[in-house]
């Protein structure tokens, strides 16, 4: 088992991120609030859908925070693990792994009983043209999970897409706004929330629902998508003219802290960056950082998918890393040919089709 690091430099003081090892270290570095939360939290943590983009660093943050808090805790990651590299990496970080198809009731039944569940399973990309599986993963599976883990507390990832488009001149959607999902992906995610809310109240399961807009790091995210287009002298479409982003390390910390916010009825929280970014200005800034001319197409719409994260900041504190800081890191990373996940976000989609 790899030794768990107990401290990392403040990411705000870094001009560059050297490599994937340093990036993973920063994404999983627990804040003091996360360490204190892991000291208070009772029991093990099971992460369903750990094999996605955020799951590994989130799981590692829980493990590192528990180590710093001197708490013996199992952190268990569940996924299909179609890529063996993710499972090996998790195990090296001291995280237990279990391979399972969560839609298989027998495999779900065999998972261990735990006090805390973080639900990250879902389907977005490829959902258009595969709508039945999208609804099964995003709306049916949550009911199965609630029945299986009726005695746990659950923090479940959702998406800001459930709000629909809102005026870019405002401050973004708040948790009390009525959902207005566009497209079957967003509708199925609202279905996920409604199923969790039903079982939360019917079975008294403490639940937190986390509406994310959008996690970013060097290998993935809206800023990387724009930066790669600028670097390749490709056109940047500004039809979806505005966006929120949040550094994945900050999103990880807020998601972990949300376990203590889970309640009956379910607590809804936006995980969103504080800045409303204009895509044109982001592209122009990245062009300056990379010494590249920027090519723009399309006309900015007056509305966009935007979340307001102030309620989360009130509870957890503000994000540590600004969007401008991440832009500098991403531009430097791309210029140096850093590794990426090759998974476009399709943030520019206005019709809800992914």
Protein architecture, described:
There is one protein chain. Helices cover 38% and strands 16% of the residues. With 354 residues, the protein is an alpha/beta fold. Strands 3-2-1-4-5-7-12 form a seven-stranded parallel beta sheet, with helices on both faces. A two-stranded antiparallel ribbon has the order 6-15. Helix 3 crosses helix 9. The longest helix has 21 residues. The N terminus is likely disordered.
SSE order and pairing:
Layout: H1 20-27, H2 32-40, E1 45-48, H3 55-68, E2 75-79, H4 84-92, E3 96-99, H5 105-109, E4 116-119, H6 131-148, E5 153-159, E6 166-167, H7 183-203, E7 207-213, E8 215-216, H8 222-231, E9 235-237, E10 242-243, E11 246-247, H9 248-257, E12 267-272, E13 277-278, H10 279-290, E14 295-297, E15 303-304, H11 310-316, H12 323-335
Parallel strand pairs: 1-2, 1-4, 2-3, 4-5, 5-7, 7-12, 8-11, 9-14
Antiparallel strand pairs: 6-15, 10-13
Helix pairs in contact: 2-3, 3-9, 6-7, 8-10, 8-12, 10-12
Task: Summarize this structure as a short list of keywords or feature phrases.
single chain; 15 strands; alpha/beta; 7-stranded parallel sheet; 354 residues; disordered N terminus
Strand order of the largest sheet: 3-2-1-4-5-7-12
List unreliable stretches of 5+ residues: 1-7
> In one word, what is the shape?
globular
Care to count the β-strands? Answer: 15
**How many angstroms separate the termini?**
39 Å
Rg estimate, integer Å: 19 Å
How many helical stretches?
12
Proportion of β residues?
15-25%
**Which structural category do the helix and sheet elements fall into?**
alpha/beta
What string gives the helices and strands in order? HHEHEHEHEHEEHEEHEEEHEEHEEHH
